[in-house]
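Q: I'm writing up a methods section and want to include an example of the input and output format. Could you take the sequence below and give the corresponding predicted structure tokens, formatted cleanly so I can copy it straight into the document?
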Amino acid sequence: MSFWRILRRRGRNATLTDNRTAFLGAVLLAGVAVEWLFVWVLGPATITLSVIPLFLVARKGGLWLALLSAAVLSINHLLACLVVEGSVAPWALQWGGVPSAFVLVGVGVLVAHNTRLVVRQVEALRQAERMLVGSEARYRLAADGANDGLWEWDLVSRTMHYSARWKEMLGWGAEEISGTPSEWFDRVHTDERTRLTAVLHQAVDNPGRRFAVEFRIRHRDGSWRWVHCRGASDATEDLRRVAGWFTDITERKKADLALRASAFRDPLTGLANRALFMDRLEHAVLRARRRGRTPFALLLVDLDRFKWVNDAHGHPIGDELLQAAGSRLESTLRPGDTVARLGGDEFVVLLESVPTAVSALLAATRIERKLRTPLALHGNAVQVSASIGVVFAEGRRDASDLLRDADVAMYRAKGHGGGQAVLFDLALHAEVVRDRTLRHDMQDALATPAFHMQFQPLVLLQDGRPIGFEGLARWTHPSIGDVSPERFVPLAEESGTIGALGTWALAEAVAQARRLQADPGLSPESLYVAVNLSPREFRDGKLADRIHSALHVSGLEPGRLCLEITESALLEEPERAVDVLRELRRAGVRIALDDFGTGYSSLATLHRLPIDCLKIDGSFVQGLETDLDKRAIVESIIALGRRLELTLVAEGIETATQRDRLRDMGCTVGQGWLFGRAMPQDELRPYLTRTLRPGRL
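A: Here is the clean output for your methods example:
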């Protein structure tokens, strides 16, 4: 209850008291006048009648009026007796003594009773006053110490009471804001004003109802502060009000907005992340279905050789490169298009309203050229290209299918050398379906004769004598036919069956090598067999155990096994790769670095690698006769290998000229169609019979 309401109630009570006092006074005066008449006519004994007003006054008027009335009536009666009888003796002795005594005793009892009542009433009033003062003090202390701003709206007087903290929250002093509702509502943001008004109207129309609402309110400095307003309405017979408090939640709102933004934004580039992009892609698919057409395109952008940038310049430069790439992608887009970072060096672009597939491919080409422009990062000139997979969305397709098709097209672009855009078409779709079939059938094929081993000779370039064979896995699918290793090996990597495939190939190769050694007609004890290890196999912690097991079962000496490892297997974790190679060397197994020259970082660490052999990639051998650049590269590799005292093997030799060039450069071992194609196991013995003289290896 407000202070002014309390005053109004006390004023009304005071008026009622004054009216009652006037009435009782009039009754007392009337009794005095009547008493004179009764004494004059009936004599002094009439006091028994004249004290009747005393009872009425004492009963209705309280202690003080009762005492005053008794004194007045007593004096008045004595005066009346003196005037009429000339003495008070007749009243005391004959006509009024005994009755008057009873009357006075009754008056005393009545006065005592009223005195106790009055004392209790006075004490209750004092206690109520003390409680009211304490309650007001506690309210004032709580209001001043609370972090919330309190408010009260008197609906009868249409005034507002705002606490000092309420005003302070908005940057105002205690005396700078009046008690009008407009001080509050005019500061509320227009977007939330209607909602706030509706909530308060519901509270007013439903007394006792609690409510809570959040809205923005303008601070004195012009900024907007978020507040959480809670309150309730109240209604009595003569009082209607709504009261509550404000809590400043601006910082919490900012944190919520930042958290919500981080849930849909890439923290490094500020672009949309996968979750937000997939949501927009699904909306694009739904719009296309409703309209009966799909006028949009999806571009999957993967930076080429990004790992090399990280390794060569460090991760801070790599992060800046990703940020710069994201900014360039954004600059190439139209309003309404979306670019997002999926993770690592992969970006994805949603192009709205693309009329044709050719338009989508042209847009992807422009983006690739934009990304190719060199960047200056911390004083380093960095240039990267991008492989882009393009999908022109046609038909009723799902968002996940579109992203998968874009990924297929992107890998096709990367497989063709990168720095280009490839459009996903029916041919690629057929390839995807075929790969899906191969991936499904691969596990079963390992348990059937569908997989088999072939062996290609490794010969001395000096005289053409074979010194070993490279074991090559081959797959003949029952419906598709022969499947190239370039296709089924990556599928095995993806599906996780590469470990089983590698274990099978290793066991087959060492078993065949052991059978050749045991042939008394050839006795090629010095022949060795080479087996390829995939990067995933190389990272397998049980690789050494698998090799020991295969050698033990076959009985082949460890020195007759050569494991060929590509440079890519050594790039991810160079230090761990060195440890694995050393463990294999301690077991007595030979190590060859395959496809040398196609990697990016192994030259710097080549001298630290415990290897026995360098295999020069066939791409450098092709065109060696006429291409001076390739010739220079091969000469450098051979010189490096000879300096490190490594065996040099050249792959892909197809002509005698290539053989002679490599031999003159210092290469000792060759492999290629010139010396023999990959052959099945049953053709190895006839081949060795033709190429080896009896008793010689």
